[in-house]
Amino acid sequence: MFINARELNNGQHIESDVCIIGAGAANITIAREYIGTSANVVLLESGGLEFDKKTQSLYDVKNIGLPSFGLNVNRLRYFGGTTRMTDNPKTGVVDENCKLNYVSNLYIAGSSLFPTIGYANPTLTIVTLALRLADHTRSLVKG
Ligand SMILES: Cc1cc2nc3c(=O)[nH]c(=O)nc-3n(C[C@H](O)[C@H](O)[C@H](O)COP(=O)(O)OP(=O)(O)OC[C@H]3O[C@@H](n4cnc5c(N)ncnc54)[C@H](O)[C@@H]3O)c2cc1C
Fold first, then answer.
1. What pLDDT sits at residue 74?
2. Are 119 and 103 in contact (CB under 8 A)?
3. Atom of ligand 1 nearest to the CA of 26
4. Residue 121: left (phi > 0), alpha (psi -120 to 50), or beta?
């Protein structure tokens, strides 16, 4: 079922067993792993049901630092390493189960888990890690 959250009444809220924020490659993979279980899953994506410039402008980026080609011509647009996985909370943000250090029920998927980002296509590894994360979180919720 699709719900346009902009049409919810003031104070109305949606309850779920699992809330997945962002419907990209990683999180659609995770959501699909709940098909056939009894868990209520919300997959929350930004924007409305139609393209709108204001939401799209949230994804505007610019190159900073050393001179480089513009992002409209640059082939390499892989981002990662911002919530790196580590077994030591001092050197990273999530543990080996993709769980945020110091927060009990918040998990992260995507290339931000990588220690650094390389030049090679990252999405297969992202999806593999997402499948592993889904296995783990499914074992924690009913269904
Ligand atoms: C031009 C281009 C070409 C690429 N080509 C390749 C390729 O050939 N091979 C390859 O392996 N990879 C490629 N990539 C990289 C690939 O797209 C990413 O690795 C992959 O999409 C990452 O998946 P993700 O789920 O981590 O993030 P994303 O796919 O970026 O998904 C994140 C989702 O979260 C949503 N979101 C963000 N903030 C919020 C919020 N606050 N609330 C709700 N939702 C939110 C976004 O709208 C988005 O749908 C390419 C990327 C680009 C830009």
1. 73
2. no
3. 25
4. beta
Amino acid symbol at 79: F
Cα-to-centroid distance, 79 and ligand 1 (Å)? 9
Name every protein residue with a CB atom under 6 angstroms from any ligand 1 atom: 21-27, 44-46, 77-78, 110-111, 121-123, 126
Looking at residue 75, the DSSP 8-state letter turns out to be: S
Q: State the helix-helix crossing angle for 123-138 and 25-32, rounded to 10 degrees.
A: 40
| HSE-CB for 125 with a 13 A CA cutoff | 12
Cα separation of the two ends of the chain: 19
Instruction: Indicate which residue's Cα is closest to atom 27 of ligand 1.
Output: 24
The 10s digit of each residue's pLDDT in 32-88 is: 999 999 999 999 999 988 999 999 999 887 778 888 777 777 767 788 899 999 999
- Ligand 1 centroid – CA 11 distance (Å): 31
The pTM is what? 0.91
Cα–Cα distance, 88 to 86 (Å, whole number): 5
Counting from 1 in the atom list of ligand 1, the atom nearest the Cα of 27 is 25
